[in-house]
Amino acid sequence: MAESKRRPEHETGPKDERSDMLGVQVAAAASGFVLSGTMLGMLVTMPVILDTNTDGLQLCRQWARAFDYGHVIGPALCGATTLLHVYAALGSRTHPWKRTSRISRRQLAAGVTTLGMVPFTLVAMTSTNNSLFALLAQGASGVADLASVRDLVGTWSRLHFARCVFPLVGAILGLGVIFL
C-alpha cells in the first residue's frame, strides 16, 4: 500500500478561516433563493386569480388565502435567512485586517438586504393589505365592484414583486461572498 503523503497541519499552515463558514454561507444564500423563489410564485398565482374571478368578494377571499400562506412561511424564512447571513458574517471575523473582513461586511450586507423586506412591507404594503382585509371583513355588502378590487390586488402584486427583490439581492450578495 502506498503511504499517505498528507502533511500535518503544523507543516501546512493554519486552516483558511473562511472555510469554517462555507457551509453556513451556502445555506444562507440557498435560503435566500428559496425565500425569493417562493415569493415569486405569486407572479403566476395572482394573474390566474385576477383573470378567473368574476366576483369581488371571491377575489378578496382568494387573495387573503394566498396572503395567509405567505404570512406563515415568509417571516420565518426571512428571519432564518437573515440569521444565517449574520452568523456567517460574525464567524468570519477572526482576523478583521485580512480578507475576511471584506467577506464579513458583504455577508452582513446580504443579511441586512434580506431583512429590508420587513420595513418595505410595513411602510409600502400595509395600507393596501388593510384595504383588502377591510373589504373582506365587510363581506358581500362591503365589497365594491370587481374592478376596484382588481386594482387593489394588482397594486398589492406590484408591491409584492418589489418586495421579492430584497431576498433575491441578499442571496446574490451572499453567493458572491462564497467566491471571494
Automatic annotation (TrEMBL):
The keyword Transmembrane applies. It is found in: Membrane. Keywords: Membrane, Monooxygenase, Oxidoreductase, Transmembrane, Transmembrane helix. It is a multi-pass membrane protein. GO terms for molecular function: monooxygenase activity. One of its GO terms (cellular component) is membrane. It comes from the Eukaryota. Signal peptide: none annotated. Residues 1-20 are annotated as: Disordered. Coiled coil: none annotated. The chain crosses the membrane at residues 21-49, 69-88, 108-126, 161-179. Belongs to the anthrone oxygenase family. PANTHER family: ANTHRONE OXYGENASE ENCC, ANTHRONE OXYGENASE-RELATED. This is Uncharacterized protein. It comes from Apodospora peruviana.
